[in-house]
Amino acid sequence: MVAALQAFDAAVALGSFKAAAAVLHVTPSAVSHRVRRLEAVLGSRLFERTHRRVRPTSAGEALAKMTGRGFAELARAMDRGVGPARPGALKISVFPLFASAWLMPRMADFIARHPDIELSINPSTRLVDLDSEAVDAAVRSGAGDWPGVTATPLMALETTLLASPSTAARLGVREAADLASAPLIQMTAFPGAWPAWFSGQGLAWIKPRQTVWVAGFEAALVAAEQGVGVALSLWPVCAQSIESGRLVEVLPHRADATMCWLVHRPSDAAHPPLTVFKRWLKTQLKALPTQDGANASRHLLERVAGG
Fold first, then answer.
1. pLDDT in tens, 252-275
2. Is 247 strand, coil or helix?
């Protein structure tokens, strides 16, 4: 019956008996047979079968919650090991900008301090079900009022506009209205980001004369560094790019956005690797820049423009 539950769980996750078969290294007919056997035992139809796809019925969705939780618990138990001397592994789901611009540049410090912890970082914006996925914690932005989890605030996020020093000097942006003639870097994952920013400034959104589309915040930073245009980003996640001089803030103010949180199951509060990671995060957060980055960017911009 375990094999049948495994086949069912894979088919739900992948939406296809063929894809589930490839993952399990069996034939699609074997997956279909196992699911039919499971349906016979439970007395309920578990899938709606369409052309090349399968979708769980209401009974299938209820079972999927249980199988997902069960297999996730098994995966976490295997990752953590059975001996008290082994701190084990820590799997964290992190939104991509935080992963690439803030967390990864600091990973060498964590590894040097805690070489016995196997840290796995999965950049993703997808909502994570901590009850049914093999993830120990997640870093997400939002209100932090998610039911059934422990949410620890990490940092307040503010929107800011970034460009390379030479691009900012060439554009000469002094107020939000000046952006109408500037090339703006837009994000397919967040198409409403720029319109929302303009609305927050009390301005109507007008399609810019020049637009370049990239996937998300992290790609927008790279494009801005290459002189493509003006990117919308989040302070203080982007602080290192500003401190290094690769980017400057083109306007002397930031706008409140949201909060960044570390989220985990209440039952994992005493999990040793998670406790160590939270303590390390707290130390890193204390070192966040306190200077007015916008003024620092402005001084750099003035030097570039004057040179």
1. 889 998 999 999 999 888 889 999
2. coil
